[in-house]
Amino acid sequence: MPADKTGKTKLAVITGGGSGIGLAMARTFARNGYSVVITGRNAKRLHDALSQLGKDQAQVTAIPCDVRDPASVEKLFQEIGKLRSTIDVLINNAGVAHTLAPVEKLPIETWKEVIDTNLTGTFLVTRAALPWMHAGATIVNNLSIAAVQPFPGMSAYNASKFGALGFTQALREDLRKRGIRVVALLPGATDTNIWGQFWADAPREKMISAETVAEAVLHAASAPANATIEEIRIGPAAGVL
């Protein structure tokens, strides 16, 4: 069972933990001995997520949070502080996509929603978490392959993810001397519900599973403190999609 320097079970905080990759990571980390906090703006979805975890839910605490809202993020970490004094793993996983649309037809409300969630939310949560983190801790930012590969009709999503990659790289430089590992997670096509937002008929059977992504993240977080892991690229075999 992973433990910190004081002998306490290590804590992983996962935003967007109520479904998809976030929920898979919550289950994987819990099954490997971590205490886990999952967050999301939808309280019902968080409650349903706990029930889906079965016996693993004993390791998991659900706390509602809207990562777009600085006050909500501050409240989240106040609640976490009541549970533990340190955070060992932070996974910025909360994210939204949008219906495919060329730039001239993309509503400003959609642009703001995607940028505020995927980019600003990652910044707000990271900034709030850093006082609780220490040498040997790990931050994983789930960026998707869209952080390095543009797609037609996805300008807001691509912009948010390209920006989040830049933030991740700058954050890594900020934290090197503190000994906090910063990992960019760039999964390819993964079988989650996000596809319903822009490609309802996507061939899910050809995609990798959320559990596969979660195992890769656990491996990175479990690496020795002096190991350098800057990026995880994982997806279906070349040519499958």
Helix-strand blueprint:
Elements: E1 11-14, H1 20-31, E2 35-40, H2 43-52, E3 60-64, H3 70-83, E4 89-92, H4 108-129, E5 138-142, H5 155-175, E6 181-187, H6 210-221, E7 231-234
Parallel strand pairs: 1-2, 1-4, 2-3, 4-5, 5-6, 6-7
Please tell me about this protein's structure.
The chain is of the alpha/beta class and 241 residues long. It has a single domain (11-234), classed as Rossmann fold (3-Layer(aba) Sandwich), CATH 3.40.50. Helix content is 38%, strand content 15%. It is built from 6 helices and 7 strands, in the order βαβαβαβαβαβαβ. The model has no long low-confidence stretch (mean pLDDT 92).
Supply the CATH class: Alpha Beta
**What is the CATH topology?**
Rossmann fold
- How many domains make up the 3D coordinates? 1
- Distance, first to last CA: 38 Å
| Helix coverage percent | 25-40%
Largest sheet: 7 strands, parallel
What distinguishing features does this structure have?
single chain; 241 residues; alpha/beta; Rossmann fold; seven-stranded parallel sheet; 38% helix
Question: Short summary of the structure?
Answer:
The protein has one domain (11-234): NAD(P)-binding Rossmann-like Domain (Rossmann fold, 3-Layer(aba) Sandwich), CATH 3.40.50. 38% of the residues lie in helices and 15% in strands. The protein contains six helices and seven strands; from the N terminus they run βαβαβαβαβαβαβ.
